[in-house]
């Protein structure tokens, strides 16, 4: 039957469906990207806005919201090609825009991923998914955005919002793109054979290390906030955590760039590991503190999701359980025991313990992947033929590669984060002044999350300007003054 006699939806080659386009792969990749996007917006926006003290709800949510929006614009202007374009340096791609129709409607490709034998002949062709470049640009954007938002968790409750607005795009350009190109886009670690299936190093180790570094340079919260920083809404926090958990189906399920066997294995392993880690963390809380903690359960969920990410599509499901056990134990130990014994960890005010839940768990997952990656599953997805875990014949070399890859990510993120913050500090203070820190959202944004005082009346700064003055540097005296005048977010502690 001639195409002209049937409906366009049923034609073998309608105009918008070229021969190379796989509708199933394209649909799944867009869904996966949307799931990951929902982890950030609204997932982490809701989680951050509810897990912090009431007076920081708006500020914390806005930091995540701003990072999401600013990342997208920088990404399509120059960032995407720096992370996934043609090679400029062994660790960096050539900057360029991803905006034109000519570029976005052609078949997606990662030009620097072509892998060669030592004699120069092609061993593995470059990655070319069966959907348009626009799909891949959007998919990789949501990973970049969530990395910066996770980093923000380390500096909530005191970072100058103007400094954050400058830091977020600069960190994307000079830190994230280097890790992404090196491990995913065809850089030297990619071709050497370091395994990072879906971001254990690129996203979680990077955000944890950079967050900890940023927390060091920005400085701590107020003493009163460090001592008491109870969530303002635990049920809403669980809503955000639920979006984060279920959204991880797209996080790890989309990593193969196709709706294939690897994606299915990755999704199952992701949730098995997360559930195992949550249960182990909760059990440890019960054993040592006599009661389960909802916040602890969320932390355990997070460490499980992070730990499985470097190898979600590459390991057996029983191995995902093993990884979940380690994910529930090791970060719990570093957070609950080691943290209290380490002078450095005590000094650095990592608000949401991103170092433990992401850096420690991401490094743990990368090392375990180097041990447990199965040859058959690895052959489906990894670019270097013969990559497999140490326990399956990969020898000590694969474990060595995983450690070296981690060290590169750690070193570069410490350096780049420090350099960016030093430059910003020359022009803008990194930390809010104590007077603003005492008040919170109303001082930083002129807005508050809840109208729990004065029936929604706004705080009149001119009326109280003579009272809120830190002439002697006495934080406790300032707190008493604010209590007397009834400043919102201070008198009501949730």
From TrEMBL:
Family as reported in the entry's similarity comment: Belongs to the ammonia transporter channel (TC 1.A.11.2) family.
GO molecular function annotation: ammonium channel activity
Main localization of the protein described in the UniProt heading: membrane
Function: Involved in ammonium transport.
Pfam family, one: Ammonium_transp
Spans traversing the lipid bilayer: 27-49, 61-80, 136-156, 163-189, 201-219, 231-251, 257-281, 293-312, 318-339, 351-374, 403-428
Subcellular localization(s) per the UniProt record: Cell membrane; Membrane
Protein's UniProt keywords contain Transmembrane: yes
Gene Ontology terms: cellular component: plasma membrane
Protein name: Ammonium transporter
Keyword vocabulary terms for this entry: Ammonia transport, Membrane, Transmembrane, Transmembrane helix, Transport
Domain (Ammonium transporter AmtB-like): residue spans on this chain: 27-450
Membrane topology: Multi-pass membrane protein
Superkingdom of this protein's organism: Eukaryota
Organism: Rhynchospora pubera
């Amino acid at each position: 039957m001639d195409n002209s006699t049937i409906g366009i939806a049923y034609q073998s080659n309608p105009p918008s469906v070229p021969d190379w386009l796989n509708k199933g792969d394209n649909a799944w990749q867009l869904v996966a990207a949307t799931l990951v996007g929902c982890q950030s917006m609204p997932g982490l926006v809701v989680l951050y806005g509810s897990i912090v003290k009431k007076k920081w709800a708006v500020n914390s949510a806005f930091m995540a919201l701003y990072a999401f929006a600013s990342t997208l614009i920088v990404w399509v202007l120059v960032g995407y090609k720096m992370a996934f374009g043609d090679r400029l340096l062994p660790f960096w791609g050539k900057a360029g825009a991803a905006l034109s129709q000519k570029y976005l409607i052609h078949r997606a490709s990662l030009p620097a991923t072509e892998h060669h034998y030592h004699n120069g002949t092609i061993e593995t062709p470059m990655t070319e998914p069966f959907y348009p470049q626009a799909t891949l640009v959007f998919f990789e954007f949501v990973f970049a955005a969530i990395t910066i938002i996770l980093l923000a968790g380390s500096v909530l409750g005191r970072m100058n919002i103007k400094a954050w607005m400058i830091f977020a795009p600069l960190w994307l350009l000079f830190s994230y793109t280097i890790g992404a190109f090196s491990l995913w886009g065809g850089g030297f670690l990619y071709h050497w054979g370091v395994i990072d299936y879906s971001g254990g190093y690129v996203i979680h180790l990077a955000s944890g290390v950079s967050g900890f570094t940023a927390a060091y340079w920005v400085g701590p919260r107020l003493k009163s906030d460090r001592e008491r920083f109870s969530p303002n809404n635990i049920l809403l926090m669980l809503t955000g955590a639920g979006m984060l958990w279920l959204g991880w189906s797209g996080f790890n399920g989309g990593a193969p760039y196709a709706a294939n066997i690897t994606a299915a294995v990755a999704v199952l392993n992701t949730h098995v590991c997360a559930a195992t880690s949550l249960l182990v963390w909760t059990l440890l809380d019960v054993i040592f503190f006599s009661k389960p903690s909802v916040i602890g359960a969320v932390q355990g969920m997070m460490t499980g999701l992070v730990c499985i990410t470097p190898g979600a599509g590459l390991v057996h499901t029983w191995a995902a359980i093993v990884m979940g056990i380690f994910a529930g134990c090791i970060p719990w130990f570093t957070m609950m025991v080691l943290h209290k014994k380490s002078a450095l960890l005590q000094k650095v005010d990592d608000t949401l313990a991103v170092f433990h839940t992401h850096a420690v768990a991401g490094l743990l997952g990368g090392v375990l992947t180097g041990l447990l990656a199965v040859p058959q599953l690895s052959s489906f997805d990894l670019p270097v033929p013969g990559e497999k875990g140490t326990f399956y014949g990969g020898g000590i070399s694969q474990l060595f590669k995983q450690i070296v890859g981690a060290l590169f990510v750690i070193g570069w993120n410490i350096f780049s984060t420090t350099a960016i913050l030093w430059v910003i500090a020359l022009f803008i203070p990194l930390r809010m002044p104590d007077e603003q820190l005492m008040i919170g959202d109303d001082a930083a944004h002129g807005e508050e999350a809840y109208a729990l005082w004065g029936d929604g009346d706004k705080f009149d700064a001119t009326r109280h300007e003579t009272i809120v003055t830190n002439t002697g540097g006495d934080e406790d005296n300032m707190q008493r003054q604010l209590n007397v005048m009834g400043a919102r977010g201070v008198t009501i502690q949730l």
